[in-house]
Write a structure and sequence with these properties.
single chain; 154 residues; Aminopeptidase; alpha+beta
């Protein structure tokens, strides 16, 4: 298995994957240059954000950290794969790991991020009727839940 608990030495790589994915996927939606290219920086994110939640992060590492997943109880909080390694099954393996090892059963996705929603649906998560505003924005997050037949009883 190429998935392991994140270590302090992974922080800059995790932040790098997060920053570039955010710029690619969310800048077209929010169009906030100040955030995407100003506030959103690898070093400050690794230092101020990711080091505080490292205990909840797992990385896909086959010699290079290619993606990561953050889990909080049974919620998938973040799932990112380096853009260079997308479409290689890494995201799916991280999702399977979260479901199997942590009984992950739900997540929230930006409503306009249809690519992500389609990915989650391919991996047995379905849209629910729940939605909420992304904090500090006018954009909605939609809740996806693991199909009931797919849930693992623990």
């Amino acid at each position: 298995m190429n998935i392991r608990k994140a270590a302090a030495g992974d922080l800059s790589r995790i932040a790098e994957i997060f920053v570039f994915n955010n710029r690619m996927n969310f800048y077209p939606i929010f169009k906030d240059e100040g955030f995407s290219f100003g506030e959103l920086q690898v070093v400050s994110l690794a230092d101020a954000y990711f080091k505080n939640i490292i205990s909840n992060i797992y990385v896909f590492d086959d010699g290079v950290v290619k993606g990561f997943i953050q889990i909080n109880e049974t919620e998938i909080v973040k799932l990112y794969v380096d853009t260079f390694f997308q479409s290689e099954g890494i995201g799916g393996r991280l999702m399977e790991y979260a479901v199997k090892e942590f009984h992950a059963d739900h997540l929230w996705a930006l409503e306009k991020n249809t690519r992500a929603i389609t990915f989650y649906q391919r991996h047995r998560f379905q849209l629910t009727d729940e939605k909420k505003f992304e904090e500090g924005t006018t954009e909605y997050l939609v809740k996806l839940a693991l199909c009931p037949a797919e849930r693992v009883e623990g």
